Amino acid sequence: MSAPNAVYLLASGTLRDKMVRMSPWKRMILAALLLTGSIGACGRAENAADDLLSSMRKMMVSQGNRDVLGSIRKGSLKVPFSLSARGDTIAFQYKQGDAWKRFDVRIGEKRAELMHVNGGKAVVMAPGTYAQPIADTDVTYEDLSLRFLYWKGGTILPDSADSRIKGRDCYIVQAANPSPGVGQFATVRMWIDKENGTVWQVDGYGANGKLKKRFSITSIQRLSDGTWFFKQMKMEVRNPQNDRRTIALDYLEMDDIPKK
Question: What CATH number should be reported for the domain holding residue 103?
């Protein structure tokens, strides 16, 4: 459906009726398409990618003001963690030894900042620590926070044989690091399910173009509002000399999210 036709149907009420019956994800995507259809061809792909990632972020925090619990698993090591959304802040806590530690992602107009929180006091995290591993795992602060979902200026790549993953048709969004040299990745590619918004895979590349890490969803859970949230995510660390080889493996595992 072209954007002008969609606008006409929206005005006539036909599309409004259809939107009521759509899943939250489909409503977000349709709204993004309506918005991007009103701009010129130049920049349309970038705006569409930004709107798609914005919808993805909304899906992640759609659970409202409550904690979502999980753990990072590396071999026999299991590190409990939680995340919760509070307005424009997402709070992460993880257990190291007997102590709980916290860092926040504060979402601004132009970027997302990582903050250490200690004794109720938040301090901006030095960018050099973004890639620091958490609690003896291979998962870093920017891995757990999925900081790259907040990068702007990305593009949606044309559909190809690579667009289908795990038997699902996906949008492939490619985004460049807006602050080169900060963090592990120069660019990322994200495979986002066209039907339900699940991020099935994220590939993070270094400045040399080699794959550094691959995040892939191995199982998902459906929530009471019809949206989806990952149940288990596998993270592979690739060999710097041969990026087809995995040299470390960690899992992010979420507890069952209770019904509202």
Answer: 2.50.20.10
Angstrom distance (rounded) from CA 49 to CA 168: 19
For tokens 């409503």, name the residue: 27
Q: For residue range 196-240, what is the model confidence (pLDDT) as tens digits?
A: 777 899 999 999 999 999 999 998 877 666 666 778 999 999 999
Give the E-state strand segments of the chain in sequence order.
68-74, 77-86, 89-96, 99-107, 112-118, 121-124, 155-156, 164-165, 168-176, 187-193, 199-205, 211-222, 228-238, 246-254
- The interaxial angle of helices 24-36 and 44-60, nearest 10 deg, is 160
The answer to whether 173 touches 154, Cβ cutoff 8 Å, is yes
Mapping DSSP to helix (H, G, I), strand (E, B) and coil, where does residue 59 land? Answer: helix
Domain count, the chain: 2
Token pair in block for residue 20: 């009521």
How do residues 63-93 score in pLDDT, each as one tens digit? 445 578 899 999 999 999 998 877 778 899 9
43 and 15 in a common domain: yes
DSSP SS3 for 29: helix
> Quick check: is 259 in a domain?
no
Domain extent, residue 138, equals: 68-254
With respect to residue 119, please indicate whether it lies within any of the assigned structural domains. Answer: yes
Residues 33 and 95 in one domain: no
Is this prediction's pTM over 0.85? no
